Amino acid sequence: LPKCIRDIAQNPPQIGDTIKINGWVKSLRISKNVAFVDLVDGSSHGDIKCVVRPPSLIPKALNTGAGVQISGVWTEGKGRQSYELQVTEQHGPQIEVYGGVEELYPLQKKTHSSQFLRSIPEYRWRVPEAGSILRMSSKLESFFSEFFDERTFFKTHPPTVTSSDCEGAGELFRIESESKLGSPEQFFGKKAYMTVSTQLHLEVLCAALGRVWTLTPCFRAEESDTNRHLSEFWMLEAEIAFIDDLTQLTRFSEAMLRYIARALQNSGFDEFPDEIKQRWDMLANGTYTQITYSEAIDLVRQNSSKFTTIPTWGDSLGSEHEKWLAGEYYKGPVFVTNYPIDQKPFYMKKNSDGKTVACYDLLIPQIGELIGGSLREHDLHKLEQEIANRQMDVGPLQWYLNLRRNGSVPHGGFGMGFERLLQYVSGAENIRDTIPFPRTTNHCAC
Ligand code: 4AD
Ligand code: MG
User: Fold this and answer.
1) 368 lines ligand 1 (CB under 6 A)
2) What is the CATH number of the domain that holds 198?
3) Which residue intervals define the domain Aminoacyl-transfer RNA synthetases class-II family profile in the entry (predicted)?
4) Is the Cβ atom of 240 under 6 angstroms away from ligand 1?
5) Does residue 249 lie within any of the structural domains?
6) For the chain, how big is the Rg over CA atoms in Å?
7) Nearest ligand for residue 232 CA
8) Which of 346, 348, 420, 439 maximizes ligand 1 atoms within 8 Å of its Cβ, making it the mutation to test the pocket?
9) Which bound ligand lies closest to the C-alpha atom of 363?
10) Are 226 and 299 within one domain?
11) Could you tell me the residue range of the domain that residue 88 belongs to?
12) Which of 124, 185, 199, 361 sits between 20 and 30 A of 58, alpha carbons compared?
């Protein structure tokens, strides 16, 4: 493959070598005796400055945004960069324009608002700051792979098409086929949905392989038009056999985030400002607090003047309470454990108090909930009882209950919103700026 700018930065050519660089024009300045072309190619945040003498070598079609190949001599830089490419007349045409730009090209030199960039999904990732978030996303995925691999977890591919509502919240998108006759049809005559969480299938695989994880798209038809909700998002889920204590899960989640944040600190994303790097440091080395739901409710009630709604025991914690707990009160990640049974899905293990379940949400500053996890009820009778209490249809869940009929073992797991983590560690104001083509309430652009 042709060398990209990242390859060149990591392993610079010899001074005096003639090289070719492919890229897109980030900026172009033409003066009387010289022209400067800054090239980017998406491989890193960095660019390469090409110094063109005489400026008449610049083809007409070359403009900000054009795709080009430039040949020149690698030399020591005179400005802010250590190296630059000297482009001269010596060996014939030096600049080939693969594709020019039309006059109305929307990305000009000035900085654009995220909102404007979202309105041009086909171009927005060309902006280096936006591209950095996708490069970071790719890296994070590798770090998670390493983390789980080192701990004998197997990455599996549970389905995104399912017949069950894992969370029981009724926020499913149903699948219909485009019928030739004009009226939509079900999934081969059966009801099927896009998954809200792959947990139930992951539990099947956990009962076979011991420790499994996945990173898959999940879909939620909730009308939450906020800066941290997507209708299609990627959930990282892990399921672990032979654990029976919630702190095993919270400690594991903490170790995972510390690992990822440390890896991020060592991976050279120098373009992020210090205030964002402080977030990485907080996840890597800061304190993770653990409190119960009851304690969280007490704290919120003791500080009631700060909130628009004041929950009593049994109510859910709102986003304002979550952000306050992590962002202002503890100023760091907080595990909130043991929520009331009624607030959580049917599969969670009940605590001996008969009122709460062995579960946790991990809250982080600015975002609120990042992870939700629990021990799973592995006793067939208790699980059947809970399904009956909730008046759920047990028929579609028989395959899941079979796990409890044969070789049932204590186990637990969690799900983490991948884009929410990315939003936090990249500093993106809106979760829509962390996923290439965001699907949100009322919005599916291209
Ligand atoms: O808390 P949730 O709903 O948990 C589950 O679905 C469990 N079955 C996971 C498991 O135990 N395997 O979702 C998990 C996480 C949330 O903490 C949040 O970070 C993210 O998924 N999430 C969303 N992210 C973006 N947009 C949305 N609409 C999200 N809904 C949940
Ligand atoms: Mg949750």
Assistant:
1) no
2) 3.30.930.10
3) 134-436
4) no
5) yes
6) 26
7) 1
8) 420
9) 1
10) yes
11) 5-105
12) 124
Ligand 1 atom at minimal distance to the Cα of residue 196: 6
Task: Per-residue pLDDT tens, the chain, 446 aa: give them.
Answer: 999 999 999 999 999 999 999 999 999 999 999 999 999 999 999 999 999 999 999 999 999 999 999 999 999 988 778 899 999 987 667 999 999 999 888 987 678 899 999 999 999 999 999 999 999 999 999 999 999 999 999 999 999 999 988 888 889 999 998 876 667 788 888 899 999 999 999 999 999 999 999 999 999 999 988 999 999 999 999 999 999 999 999 999 999 999 999 999 999 999 999 999 999 999 999 999 999 999 999 999 999 999 999 999 999 999 999 999 999 999 999 999 999 999 999 999 999 999 999 999 999 999 999 999 999 999 999 999 999 999 999 998 999 999 999 999 999 999 999 999 999 999 999 999 999 999 999 888 78
Q: Is residue 441 part of a domain?
A: no
Q: Is 91 in the same domain as 238?
A: no
**Centroid of ligand 1 to alpha carbon of 196 (angstroms):** 8
Q: What is the ipTM of this complex?
A: 0.99
What tokens were used for 296?
A: 């969280």
Q: Judge if 230 and 320 occupy the same domain.
A: yes
- The rounded Å distance from CA 228 to ligand 1 centre is 11
- For tokens 């591919």, the residue is 157
CATH number of the CATH domain containing 60: 2.40.50.140
Which residue's CA lies nearest to atom 17 of ligand 1?
371
Same domain assignment for residues 36 and 69: yes
Task: Report the C-alpha gap between 419 and 233 in whole angstroms.
Answer: 7
Give the position, in ligand 1's atom list, of the atom nearest the Cα of 237.
12
Q: Are residues 79 and 142 in the same domain?
A: no
Has residue 158 been placed in a domain?
Answer: yes
**Residue 365 and residue 250 share a domain:** yes
User: Quick one: 246 and 163 in the same domain?
Assistant: yes
283 Cα: distance to centroid of ligand 2 (angstroms): 20
Q: Is 56 left (phi over 0), alpha (psi -120 to 50) or beta?
A: alpha
Give the whole-angstrom CA distance, residue 133 versus residue 432. 11
Coil, helix or strand at residue 429 = coil
- Torsion (CA) 77, 78, 80, 86 in degrees, nearest 10: -50
Q: Give yes or no: residues 88 and 195 share one domain.
A: no
Domain limit, last residue, from 43, 76, 105: 105
Which one of the ligands is nearest to 417 CA? 1
Instruction: Specify the pTM.
Output: 0.96
Q: For ligand 1, is residue 404 a contact (CB within 6 Å)?
A: no
All residues at 6 or more sequence positions from 121 whose CB lies less than 8 Å from its CB, including other chains: 436, 437, 445, 446
- Counting ligand 1 atoms within 8 A of each CB, the residue from 197, 226, 360, 376 with the most, and so the one to mutate, is 197
Burial of 47: CB neighbours in 10 Å, binned 0-12, 13-18, 19+: buried
110 part of a folded domain: no
CA-nearest residue, atom 24 of ligand 1? 417
Domains identified in the chain, total number = 2
